[in-house]
Design a protein that fits this description.
This protein has about 280 residues and is of the alpha/beta class. It has two domains: about 180 residues, 3-Layer(aba) Sandwich (Rossmann fold), CATH 3.40.50.1010; about 70 residues, no CATH class. The chain is about 35% helix and about 30% strand. Strands 4-3-2-1-5-6-7 form a seven-stranded mixed beta sheet, sandwiched between helices. It has a five-stranded antiparallel beta sheet with strand order 8-12-11-10-9, with helices on one face. One of its GO terms (molecular function) is RNA nuclease activity. This is NYN domain-containing protein.
């Protein structure tokens, strides 16, 4: 009688499978949305791996000749070499060719699907995390779930079909919090992660303790907003949050320019133009 893999081999570890091209696009998009010009999220691959026993990383190296310069080929080869040297990582590479103005990968997606299914069929893992936003992987996810495997999808915000999201057992949006959680310490030292809390007005109000008032304004859905300066940092405190007058937002950042990007992209809260510093 057929038994699902996860029931017949319950103690097998968790694996991760990464669509490298998708991850790099996610990094670029998140950097442009949340960071100041000139800054790009730098991924700590140990943090990305987390508790997964193995990570299989799929990407393509541009084909030599007219399709790419020697510099592009060397840069991608070095990037994949660095990833492949990380503990627990295994890189599978194909070729990338230019179609009109865009690069198209060859063999990469098929290799990911074959590996993920083959390793599952051999009982090598009982749960897996897949990083992608490509709807073409939905039949693969459906098949793995039907085998009894536990599948988590990490997907790019705003660019993933709902059918793929629904197919996985759980889905995690790669939002700004996810990127800061996966960032290197070197990046976080140069670009500290903004902090925030949604607090109930009846609970501990210490985050709203007085600081030097820089600016105050009213914002639809947020009520009275105050920008404070404290210990070389800035804080924004609202009197409510959209659709919930009983909670307020507290957020802290190190520079006004970063705070302006952060509050708008993360919460939709606009710092007035007269706020500078």
């Amino acid at each position: 009688m057929f038994q699902p893999v996860s029931e017949s081999l319950p103690n097998r570890p968790a694996y991760m499978f990464v669509d490298g091209a998708c991850l790099q696009e996610m990094i670029q998009a998140a950097s442009e949305r949340y960071l100041e010009p000139g800054f790009v999220f730098e991924i700590d691959y140990r943090a990305l791996r987390g508790t997964h026993a193995k990570v299989y990383y799929y990407d393509a190296i541009p084909r030599s000749g007219a399709d790419a310069s020697d510099e592009q080929i060397e840069a991608k080869a070095q990037e994949l070499g660095l990833i492949g040297r990380q503990d627990g990582y295994h890189v599978r590479s194909g070729e990338a060719v230019r179609r009109k103005k865009a690069w198209t990968q060859k063999m990469v997606d098929v290799q990911l699907a074959v590996d993920m299914m083959s390793l599952a069929a051999r009982g090598m893992y009982s749960s897996a995390t897949l990083i992608t936003g490509d709807l073409d992987f939905k039949p693969l996810v459906d098949a793995l779930v039907d085998l009894g495997l536990d599948i988590t999808l990490i997907y790019p915000a705003g660019h993933t079909n709902n059918d793929l999201i629904a197919a996985a057992d759980r889905a995690v949006e790669a939002n700004v919090d996810w990127f800061f959680a996966c960032a290197t310490q070197r990046f976080l030292k140069a670009y500290p992660s903004p902090q925030y809390q949604f607090n109930h007005r009846a609970t501990d109000m210490r985050p709203a303790a007085p600081g030097e008032l820089v600016h105050a304004w009213q914002a639809d859905g947020w009520g009275e907003c105050r920008l404070l300066s404290r210990d070389g940092l800035y804080e924004v405190i609202t009197s409510e949050i959209p659709e919930d007058p009983h909670h307020f937002l507290w957020t802290r950042f190190d520079r006004i320019a970063r705070g302006r990007l952060w509050t708008l992209a993360r919460f939709g809260l606009v710092l007035p133009e007269e706020v500078t510093g």
